[in-house]
Amino acid sequence: MDTPLDRLTEQFRRLPGIGIKTARKLAYYMVQQPQEQVDAFISAVRSAKETMCFCSVCFNLASQDPCPICSDETRDRSTICVVETPQDVMAIERSGDYRGLYHVLHGALSPLDGVGVDDLRIKELLQRLSDTDVKEIIIATDPDVEGEATALYLARLLKTAGIKVTRIARGLPMGGDIEYADEATLAGAVANRQEM
């Protein structure tokens, strides 16, 4: 039977990390809320979808282009922290210790999943480096197999350009995501990064 509640449950189930039980719980919750709260939820989703864009400089998700980080003249423009996702930018920003710029790859190298060099924003990173006076690239990819492969690839590529390449220090668990690390762990990892 395909009811409106089943269709709503299926839409929630499509979200990352949401299983069928949680999707069903969310669907029931939403249909039991007052109409004003449901309308506010729908409006927030629609507004975010319509107004958010990718920064043309760093490819972070933002509501303006260039993003507030790239537009901030007080940030250290000699350092770029390379991350996998916009969520990683937010996680590092929460630590409060990094004041440089970012570059979001939108993924990591994963040949088994069909993600290669051309699927990431690596060409755009190289273009940025040719147009700026960057002295250091901090590689802050996830400490998993794909993140490590991406870090090694970038380190080899960037060392030929004569730029100092560092990797955030260990301290994040292998197989973990930067997005879910606490601020203290991230602050220590960025402060204790090591040259690759």
What would your notes on this structure say?
By secondary structure, the protein is α/β, with parallel strands linked by helices. The chain has two domains: 4-51, RecR Domain 1 (Helicase, Ruva Protein, domain 3), CATH 1.10.8.420; 72-195, Dna Topoisomerase Vi A Subunit, Chain: A, domain 2 (3-Layer(aba) Sandwich), CATH 3.40.1360. It is 45% helix and 14% strand. It contains eight helices and seven strands; from the N terminus they run H-H-H-E-E-H-E-H-E-H-E-H-E-H-E. A five-stranded mixed sheet has the order 4-3-5-6-7. Strands 1-2 form a two-stranded antiparallel sheet. Helix 5 (86-95) crosses helix 8.
How would the blueprint of this fold be written?
Layout: H1 4-13, H2 20-32, H3 35-51, E1 53-54, E2 61-62, H4 68-71, E3 76-83, H5 86-95, E4 100-104, H6 122-131, E5 136-139, H7 145-159, E6 164-167, H8 183-191, E7 194-195
Parallel strand pairs: 3-4, 3-5, 5-6
Antiparallel strand pairs: 1-2, 6-7
Domain Toprim: 78-173
Family: Belongs to the RecR family.
Pfam families: RecR_C, RecR_HhH, RecR_ZnF, Toprim_4
Helix and strand run: HHHEEHEHEHEHEHE
The helix count comes to 8
- Over the alpha carbons, how many angstroms does the gyration radius reach? 20 Å
How many separate domains?
2
Largest sheet: 5 strands, mixed
- From the N-terminal CA to the C-terminal CA, the straight-line distance is 57 Å
Physical arrangement of strands within the biggest beta sheet:
4-3-5-6-7
- CATH topology of the largest domain: the name is Dna Topoisomerase Vi A Subunit, Chain: A, domain 2
Level-1 CATH class name of the largest domain: Alpha Beta
Q: Flag low-confidence runs.
A: none
- What is the annotated CATH architecture of the largest domain? 3-Layer(aba) Sandwich
Please tell me the overall pLDDT.
Answer: 91
| Shape label | elongated
Helix content estimate: 40-55%
Structural class: alpha/beta
Strand elements, count = 7
Strand content: 5-15%
